[in-house]
Known about the structure:
2 copies of one chain form a homodimer. With 654 residues, chain A is of the alpha/beta class.
Amino acid sequence: MTTAENSSSYEITFLPSNRRVKVAAGVSLIKAAHLAGVHINASCGGSGVCGKCRVILEGGTVEGGRSEKLSSAEYAEGYRQACIAEVNGNATIRVTAESELAAGAVPTEVPIRHQARMHVFDIDTLKKEGVFLPPIEKRVLHLPEPTHEDNRADAGRIIRGLHKEHNERGLVTPLPVLKKMRRALRDKNFEVTVTLSRAVGEGSKTHIVNIQPGDVSHRNFGLAFDIGTTTVHGSLVDHQTGRLISRRSDYNAQISYGEDVISRIIQAEKPKGLQLMHELVVNTINGLITKLLLKTDIGRDELTSITLAGNTTMTHLLLGLEPHNIRRAPYVPVSTFFPPIRARDIDLELPLRAVALVYPSISSYVGGDIIAGVMGSGMYRTEPVTLFIDIGTNAEIVIGNRDWLVCAACSAGPAFEGGGITHGMRAAAGAIEDFSINPVTFEPMNITIGHKPPIGICGSGLLVIIATLFENGIIDRQGKFDRSLDTPRIREGRSGFEYVLTWKEEAGGNSDIVLNEVDIENFTRAKAAIYAGCKTLVEGVGLHITDLEQIILAGAFGSYIDLDSAMTVGLLPEVNPDKIIYVGNGSLLGSWMSEMSNHIRRDVVEVVNKMTSFELSEVKNFHDQYVASLFLPHTDLSLFPTTSKRLKKNGQTA
Amino acid sequence: MTTAENSSSYEITFLPSNRRVKVAAGVSLIKAAHLAGVHINASCGGSGVCGKCRVILEGGTVEGGRSEKLSSAEYAEGYRQACIAEVNGNATIRVTAESELAAGAVPTEVPIRHQARMHVFDIDTLKKEGVFLPPIEKRVLHLPEPTHEDNRADAGRIIRGLHKEHNERGLVTPLPVLKKMRRALRDKNFEVTVTLSRAVGEGSKTHIVNIQPGDVSHRNFGLAFDIGTTTVHGSLVDHQTGRLISRRSDYNAQISYGEDVISRIIQAEKPKGLQLMHELVVNTINGLITKLLLKTDIGRDELTSITLAGNTTMTHLLLGLEPHNIRRAPYVPVSTFFPPIRARDIDLELPLRAVALVYPSISSYVGGDIIAGVMGSGMYRTEPVTLFIDIGTNAEIVIGNRDWLVCAACSAGPAFEGGGITHGMRAAAGAIEDFSINPVTFEPMNITIGHKPPIGICGSGLLVIIATLFENGIIDRQGKFDRSLDTPRIREGRSGFEYVLTWKEEAGGNSDIVLNEVDIENFTRAKAAIYAGCKTLVEGVGLHITDLEQIILAGAFGSYIDLDSAMTVGLLPEVNPDKIIYVGNGSLLGSWMSEMSNHIRRDVVEVVNKMTSFELSEVKNFHDQYVASLFLPHTDLSLFPTTSKRLKKNGQTA
């Protein structure tokens, strides 16, 4: 993550505006300008093709910044192409006339974007708070050898040792451990390391899940997984220290049978389909386990636990439960709670002792991934009224605090994943992910993923583009273009008016890349569903949307979300951007937390039982809320006071 | 069982003594005479060969009783051979002069033998006492179908139904049940039968281990097993009613690798030996399960639980635990407690859900079979100070009541199983199992198993023979023959003096069957070890042997033990024979009880923790006690007051 706030090392000063930003080495100048709130024309997405982004290096150094678009003489004069120049020290950069409007004002200045504060997962704080209580712990025992006076059984000797040396009680010794006990004790002269699997519920027992000769207490590892419909993410965790050792992800191998959960369910309903879906996701997980262990000295047999979180359908397919009724009214899953499972019983290639913990769900469409996010974010144990939101094809919303929790799933449609948008695409190389506009010439600065020529628009780009067009008066509150504007970039296309982001010549494909009014309509419907969902939920518990004190964003989309844009268009309720926190992959975070803390495992049951699920389609005024949200940012501007003020200041008619 | 007290149907009157006995149809006259305390010469063991047992039928009827030894004329006169005549109605029988001493007295009268009262296992009493609480129960649910207002998960619906309809709480639903849930619910319109596996410990959960469509609550079955070193016994149990459906036994297939536990351990120490021993006993159990289900309409998949009890070595081999240190000082088993185990995990051919409960042991030589006997007999929850004793190669002794329990294993040697006795043998066809003697002529009445010509002496026969010889002054308190007696049956043989039980011509083998002084010495050492063990244990807790209020006998030997004989020789402490109860196979009984009652499962942990184990060889005065017991019945006759009185009355010099 590179933002103006963190990971900084070098200061870049942009002239003539004199705006400064601190960024890490390797960041492109165009990205640095964007972070500083400086606009540089860059139609080609930072691939160096259009050559419009030339700037002058007036002091310090940068790396690269020269393509065939610059002559040797120009290069010697200090000209650089901002999109292909990378920071490698402090520098002063002049944004040249070519790249801005010739006359007056300081049109290189555009609003600085706010990204959410990254939630920092801090083991030391957890330890201080007493929350660091790994479910798997190792204990070393130095036991006396048997004598005629003390010839208790090997198992009894170990249990007494655990009691006397470590104050452990209520222990159960499963058969596989009993089988290893005699040799383990006698191999290193009655010094052994036992692995304890902590009980969660009160009255439950601690299980002795392994015994090894000698002291190997420092080797104690587990796994945390997020089972996404598209992508599976895995982490390898050190139970002894709480540290993350490695992290890997891969496409869910089920993806070749359909992109969304409904198509996976249909597949599972076919003969042997459920087994197939189960095997595909398990193969993905097993493959990731192998990758997680690569370049470590950790063996597969040293892994004692795994926590997995996924949406309700993914969880069903992972466990081999029939998902049929998830897609049929009244949408009944087989189960929302799952007992601890022997990892081998769901075909995970882990030692026999390894236990798989699967996050519980709330309903067919509020799954374990959301619960994991709630647990990982800690919102369930703090005071502020918090909105937790994970935006994908379905946006899941949780609102509440330590006293109450409500949740709902909003059918947002696939706009945020690029679906239903003319040039929409997933967040992959060539996707426009960020954007600004010259407020006078309406020339764009496109920032693409991987500095490739633009081939489409991903979710975060879509949000920023629409917000920027709206802020600059190019589209109105209904998402319609101002047809009076004098620029070739705005024109009438097949689906109403459109804005040309990139001309064909500069694009990665063989057509202009545009955003049209139908795209904007689809986006607006999606954001309206989410906002209306939040408002309905909040009002359902007798509060107002303005009572929200904190917003927690989760999911891949949330990591790139521009907060000002999100409030400008009315996707997120308006709060001080400082109160918005991004937790990254909430599902993975929650899984990891469960590997770190038995308190989380205990609390999750309470959280699920406490959480009230709303079926939005069953709530009376949800549709009215939705219709009211189909404007930018909303029909009721009093819900967005700061945004309204900003829009007015910017000259928007709002 | 046929005794004078129960199963009676016909009255047989013996003349001239006028002694009467009630016996069932089919019992041989010789057996009836024996029960009535009437001696009939019968050297050939009831095979009809010697023809000495002729009696006269003076009234009523008998079946058979004629071989070539009787002429037609004799038969017409009423002569019958008692050993091959069977009761089929009331009858009056005169014991003829040929078969008794010609003159005076009533030498046909011999002491009536007392066998222990049979412990009757009464389900109805258990139910009244609230002890009938099967660990596996079935519950029928009639659930409402899901609606938009109530679209909880299938599992949640079932759990709520169990709570509302059956007041069940704290339920866990394992994965295999979740997998069947959706179809089971929808197959019979949301009527289902769930199988609950009850928790034992406090705070533990009840597991839902099966779900079936419709109402099948009446089909609920389990298994109880005794894993003996020689023989494996199994019972098929109806959990719904508590009834025993069938019972089978078979040799433990390990037997071809040695008769005793030590040889099995040695075998298990060889490469792959442990796996082999495990497989052999598991194959025996699996074979018995098949046999138990034969001629029933019960399928293997209807069996939900199995309880197994065996000695510590058998338990180790069953579970695949290394028994190596059981045979090496200081005799340390791997474990004495065993967690509930998935039956499949120890290769039992039972459904995946079936749980195996294995009885805990106390030490290397006081095993789960003994604990099962203690649990089955109920001695741990009653007031009287009780001696529980299971006699085999090793006799295990438990003494105590509901407040305290102590136990020990006595190395009795194999005399009671026929080992170390010149003509000793196991209790099989042709073994002399009962005996009386004509007090004047010293002619024997041998009763053999299966009415075959005698081929040897089994444990119960040995006890009765020695007691009878002692009562009649043929041997003295040191087990030496009175060499002055004038009978060809007492003679000097290779191993000192001996008594000829059967002449070669009447025997099943090709030699005389005898009992010699060395045999008597071996027997005396065995009984002394047991008695000394009891006395040492009792005195170890500050009581006297005379404080024993009840004796419970278990094991195959116990079923045939003649109580008077046992006290005459000083094997058992002297108590009123009414206070002696025989529980049969205590190990099997305890297993069955565990299948019937969760109270037993709960209590067993308490019993094991409460029980103090004595290592007799470590107790100071055990050896002195042993030496003092090497007399018949004991050096200290005050320990056997009634026996001493009887012996004096019989003219014994004791």
